[in-house]
């Protein structure tokens, strides 16, 4: 009897896991990162290659999202810079990119300060389109 109940305890979670794996949709690499203090925040959605830049401070300083990738066919480096000066109460800036599926990308969030000054950027976050 003890053996049967132990097997039941093991079998039930395995069945649930199998159902999850079978019914799960395509894998998506989605992530986000914010700069020190989190005034600037960016998100990347792999399905559709959507890059979103948030400005979470009402301080008059905009935010910048930078994203880069290498075209797998040509080896050419591509990038995009999206600025957001909408402030805390404004909407995020959203850019729909055209990046081949499976391409490695990197992105970061920064403050939009004058050139040559500390932009207080996050580190580069690596993801897959």
Describe the protein.
There is one protein chain. With 129 residues, the chain is an alpha+beta fold. Helices cover 17% and strands 39% of the residues. The chain has one helix spanning 2-23, and strands at residues 31-34, 40-45, 50-55, 62-70, 77-84, 93-96, 104-112, 125-128. The protein has a four-stranded antiparallel beta sheet, with no helix packed on it. Strands 5-4-7-8 form a four-stranded antiparallel beta sheet, with no helix packed on it. The model is unreliable at 1-28 (pLDDT under 50).
| Terminal-residue CA separation | 51 Å
Shape call: globular
For the largest sheet, list the strands in their spatial order: 1-2-3-6
The parts where pLDDT drops under 50 for at least 5 residues are 1-28
Oligomer: single chain
Count of helical regions: 1
Radius of gyration: 21 Å
Strand content of the residues, in percent?
A: 35-45%
β-strand number: 8
Q: How would you classify the helix and strand content by structural class?
A: alpha+beta
Main sheet characteristics: 4 strands, antiparallel
- Helical fraction equals 10-25%
Mean pLDDT across all residues, rounded? Answer: 81
Order of helices and strands: HEEEEEEEE
Which key features would you list for this structure?
129 residues, alpha+beta, four-stranded antiparallel beta sheet, 1 helix, 8 strands, disordered N terminus
Gist?
With about 130 residues, this protein is α+β, with helices and mostly antiparallel strands.
Describe the secondary structure blueprint for this structure.
Blueprint lengths: L1 H22 L7 E4 L5 E6 L4 E6 L6 E9 L6 E8 L8 E4 L7 E9 L12 E4 L1
């Amino acid at each position: 009897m003890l053996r049967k109940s132990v097997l039941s305890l093991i079998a039930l979670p395995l069945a649930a896991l199998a159902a999850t794996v079978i019914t799960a949709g395509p894998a998506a690499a989605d992530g986000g990162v914010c700069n020190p203090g989190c005034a600037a925040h960016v998100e990347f959605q792999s399905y559709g290659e959507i890059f979103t830049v948030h400005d979470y401070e009402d301080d008059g300083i905009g935010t910048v999202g930078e994203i880069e990738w290498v075209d797998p066919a040509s080896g050419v480096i591509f990038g995009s810079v999206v600025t957001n000066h909408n402030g805390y109460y404004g909407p995020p800036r959203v850019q729909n990119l055209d990046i081949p599926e499976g391409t490695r990308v990197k992105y970061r969030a920064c403050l939009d300060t004058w050139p040559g000054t500390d932009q207080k950027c996050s580190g580069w976050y690596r993801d897959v389109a």
